[in-house]
Design goal:
Strand content: 15-25%
């Protein structure tokens, strides 16, 4: 359905750490940002409270779409990483619109990949052009691990597929990763990829390596992590600065697992159209992802008889952390 000539839509990217809301004016068949704002998730009791703060009763909305972590079933979302229940009907009533839509956050992120600028992309593997329109895989590590895909449909359009692929069983690839699995299995009843490929996942890998080796933790690192700072950020920054060998090993292990799971996703969707690595972590660890000796692409290609095919798939990092918001805005526009 074609969008109206002029309208106002509300978009949101709801995460376990932050909520990014944006108000868009739809003109000429595309959404243009009017204003946006980021809120700490922990500061609000519900999405409705966050919307009230953002809108302040000053905006008339024609449609709204929100990307949320976890499955959306029957218009209701109960995310694992956000302590709220969100319902489309309740949101529509609060906003005064005929319909509000909830979609999986990676579904929104995948749509956002279609609108990235060249300056918002870093190529990890050039690959080859696909023979015609082919599926595109999207994987994004942040507070959790999200996975999705874009499937080509009629009229040159794309359909994003929601998944909960981040919660499938973690599959170790070597002895050290097997020890990591065993370490985490003593703590969690189910060790998923999200337990190792996320901000908390990087911390889990670091904890495993710390428990495995006799070297004491540097005081400066312990103090920083104990001071309420983001432990994953402390580990990755120390690794990139080559300031602590254990942090370097943790991030290298994280990157290798990331590359392997990105290839798993590419194989499941036969994503000859490419793989996009989104989320908040990838832009912050680019030096490790792009390093000539880095393990991401090496692990991506380590699939035995399918390695030659995987070498033909373009792999790109998305630098625009507002991609999910952009994707949600386009979904809202399609509701008009």
């Amino acid at each position: 359905m074609a969008a109206r000539a002029t309208a106002t839509v509300l978009a949101g990217d709801v995460g376990g750490t932050k909520i990014h809301l944006g108000l868009y004016r739809v003109a000429g068949g595309k959404p243009e940002i009017v204003r946006d704002r980021i809120f700490p998730t922990r500061d609000f009791k519900s999405l409705e409270d966050t919307l009230a703060d953002f809108l302040g009763g000053r905006a008339t909305i024609d449609a709204a779409c929100f990307g949320v972590p976890g499955p959306v079933i029957g218009g209701i979302a109960r995310p694992v990483n956000v302590p709220w229940t969100m319902e489309e009907r309740a949101l529509a009533r609060v906003l005064g619109v005929s319909g509000a839509r909830l979609i999986n956050d990676l579904e929104a992120t995948a749509y956002g990949m279609l609108y990235l600028k060249e300056s918002e992309i870093v190529v990890l593997q050039a690959g080859e052009p696909a023979p015609g329109r082919a599926p595109i895989a999207v994987i994004a590590a942040g507070t959790g691990l999200g996975e999705s895909a874009l499937l080509p449909i009629e009229d040159g359009r794309w359909r994003s597929v929601a998944t909960e692929g981040g919660h499938v069983d973690f599959a170790p690839r070597d002895r050290l990763q097997t020890e990591l699995l065993e370490f985490l299995a003593r703590e969690f009843d189910h060790v998923s990829y999200e337990r190792v490929l996320s901000g908390p996942g990087l911390v889990n890998i670091y904890r495993f390596l710390r428990a495995r080796g006799p070297e004491p933790e540097p005081r400066w690192l312990a103090e920083r992590m104990a001071g309420g700072e983001d432990a994953a950020a402390a580990i990755s920054e120390a690794a990139l600065a080559r300031r602590d060998a254990r942090c370097v090993e943790a991030l290298e292990m994280f990157v290798a697992i990331y590359g392997a799971e990105a290839a798993n996703l590419a194989l499941k969707y036969l994503a000859l159209g490419g793989v996009y690595v989104g989320g908040g972590i990838a832009p912050r660890i680019l030096p490790m992802l792009t390093a000539a000796e880095g393990g991401f692409v090496r692990a991506f290609l380590a699939k035995g008889r399918l390695s030659e095919m995987l070498a033909k798939i373009p792999v790109r990092v998305a630098l625009n952390e507002a991609a999910a918001l952009c994707g949600a805005a386009h979904c809202a526009m399609e509701m008009l």
